[in-house]
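Lecture 7 notes: from sequence to structure.

We start with a single chain of 142 residues. Read the sequence below before looking at the structure.
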Amino acid sequence: MKSFLKSFRIGKAGGEALGPLEGAVMEVLWHRDCLTGREVYREVLRAKKVAYTTVLTVLERLVNKGLVKKERGEDGYIFSALYSKEEFQRMVSREVLKGVLELSQSTAIVNFVDILAEEDPGELERLRRLVEEKSRELGKKS
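Now the structure, written as tokens:
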């Protein structure tokens, strides 16, 4: 399991896997990869008033969480995202769903279907097809 997922908890403020500044830094790296700390700072500064050292601290925390790669470059360290935004979202959503299913599988599934029906009824058909496909795959393995 990735280190950032170990510290992720559903009950965390706002249910977010990243704090607001971590999210802002990651958005910069997802849109413009391989940046120096100063370049990340300049991009984040466009949206938030924040100190340069604070951005560097956040970058180091993201490196320690296993979300950002740090390499020595000609003009200092270069930072890049280790996962695309889609990969990150997929990993976090999988962990959240695993946590919810640990509470009660049947209740979680019923609530998921109910919420999906309210939010996007068209997705129910897609879900049905996915369940059928996965059932066929499992049947072939037996």
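The chain has a mean pLDDT of 87. Keep this in mind for problem set 3.
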